[in-house]
Design brief:
Length: about 270
């Protein structure tokens, strides 16, 4: 979740080559895209983008690059890039998980700087991020974005799980003081807070099930053992490790809750 991706291996030159060679009939917009001056300007814009790193969202918006307009850019993307270039672009990331949710495979491309404002980056590889369909569609129109080629929030620093056992078992997500505002914002923008809360509640249910099915007596020690065995399972996600850590901190409360649950079942 919110992990860094390797920079795309594909260059803007390769994009132009594919569009030029794989396209039989060249539309006016493709011809304008292949114009030498336009290509030079696009390359300069790409270079500036690569240098901008943490200031990428301060790059200037452009309606056109020479004769290549925003409308041309959209047509080239829709009619050429999507069909001719996209498969090769995504090929590099086919074994990676979606950089947003870390769950599904990335099958779509998201424009970090939107093509409605930045004509010059519509087909620029560094502005195109592979993403799963869900995350791409969940993304809210917002200035706050996450750039997986430059940024890494995969340690989810400051994110915590809170357990409420008063009425029924509910896990909620909160942030400790001093958590990076950007993490909070991108959790909202991509609706990952809700997704993570759902996953955390499912995990809690699984833990409760394995405790109630355990043949050992319901006591603090045995409950602790079930939690420990889940925690020692290899290949846990970052959020799962945090979940178990926070759960261990409230084991007494959890035990009381479990006894109540077990009693309810026996009524
Ligand atoms: Zn995703």
């Amino acid at each position: 979740m919110f992990s860094k991706l390797d920079l795309p291996k594909m260059s803007l030159g390769r994009v132009a080559y594919l569009i030029d060679h794989e396209t039989q009939k060249k539309s006016k917009s493709v011809k304008r895209f292949l114009d030498v001056d336009t290509q030079k300007k696009l390359l300069l814009a790409e270079r500036e983008y690569k240098r901008s790193e943490d200031k990428y969202d301060e790059l200037s918006e452009e309606d056109s690059v020479g004769v290549f307009s925003k409308k041309d850019a959209k047509l080239v993307y829709k009619n050429r890039f999507n069909t001719v270039v996209r498969p090769e672009f995504l090929d590099q990331y086919q074994t990676e998980a979606c950089p947003i949710c870390g769950v599904a495979f990335p099958q779509e491309l998201d424009h970090v700087l939107p093509k409605s404002k930045y004509a010059q980056f519509t087909v620029t590889p560094i502005n195109l991020v592979p993403m799963c369909g869900n995350c791409n569609h969940e993304k809210l129109a917002s200035k706050v974005s996450f750039h997986p080629y430059f940024e890494d929030f995969s340690d989810l620093r400051g994110l915590e799980f809170r357990f409420d056992f008063k009425s029924k078992a509910i896990v909620s997500i909160c942030f400790s003081d001093g958590t990076d505002d950007k993490l909070k914002n991108i959790m909202d923008v991509y609706k990952q807070k809700r997704q993570l809360a759902l996953s955390a509640n499912r995990l809690l249910k699984r833990i409760i099930n394995s405790i109630s099915m355990s043949e050992n007596k319901l006591n603090l020690e045995n409950i602790g053992k079930v939690i420990e065995s889940g925690e020692s399972y290899g290949g846990l996600e970052v959020w799962e490790k945090k979940f178990y850590k926070n759960l261990r901190e409230i084991t007494d409360e959890f035990y009381t809750f479990l006894c109540n649950e077990a009693n309810k079942g026996n009524e």
